[in-house]
Predict the 3D structure of the following.
Amino acid sequence: MPLPAGHKFPMPKYAGVRYLLEPVLPILEPPRIDWALVERVHDAAYLKKLRFGLLSDKEMRLMGFPWSEHLIERALRASGGTFLAAKDALQVGLGVNLAGGTHHAYPDHGEGFCVLNDVAIVALELLQNGLERILILDLDVHQGNGTAFIFQSDPRVFTISVHGERNYPFHKERSSLDFGLADWIEDADYLQLLQDQVFPAAETFKPQLIFYLAGVDVMAKDQFGRFALTLEGVKARDKLVFEFCRSNQIPVVSLMAGGYNKNLEQTIEAHVNTVLAALEVFVSPLLI
Ligand SMILES: [Zn+2]
């Protein structure tokens, strides 16, 4: 997707992650998700503007991207990837999308580099097809406001968001469970919180599937984060999440979500580590 020079969004991170993971596992091209599934979450008026390039300057500023044909193509394929990853998870326990987790997208507008709410689109389809309880575990540093809004009165979906209280979005929605943390939290306190509070709450809901938003913008020196986790701390976080899912036999879909480190290579390494952590937890035990 073309972006103007100097744009803050680190588009090259996707190619970098793919490049590093290609020798490790097969990477498939995701198809576009069906338009009919998108229409269940997003308003017709918004989708019309997306499709025909009718977004106002204000709407594009809020979304964070200029309109182009690639914008909608990319969003449809990212959601298609989340759908395929969810099918993988339900079949073998783990599914990975090397994109997705666009949790700031609302039914009627895009926001914060998010065009379509991929997780909401796929979750609604899975609920339609027999699943009864889905957990969205959002560990991106920013609150999953769009997702929380979409599922605020849907008891079938439990939304947990662990985020910076003083960070964007400045108007927070109400998730099923929010952990609004102080700035500059470090590895030990963050990991402790996961074990003491986040996982027990997740377990209580008895989800049949977990969407894990593994945003790496929790890492120190992220342009848009205000936490201070290390690269090792982020990998330890990912490993704890996957171990929780595996030991409770809950299928998990891993989604990239945000990552905007001042050092692009750190962002790429952290996203790659998420996938390696998943393989260590789900695949390595099978090889012993
Ligand atoms: Zn984020």
In short: The chain has eleven helices and six strands. Residues 140-142, 215, 217, 257-258 surround zinc ion (CB under 6 Å). The domain at 29-287 is CATH 3.40.800.20 (Arginase; Chain A). The mean pLDDT is 96.
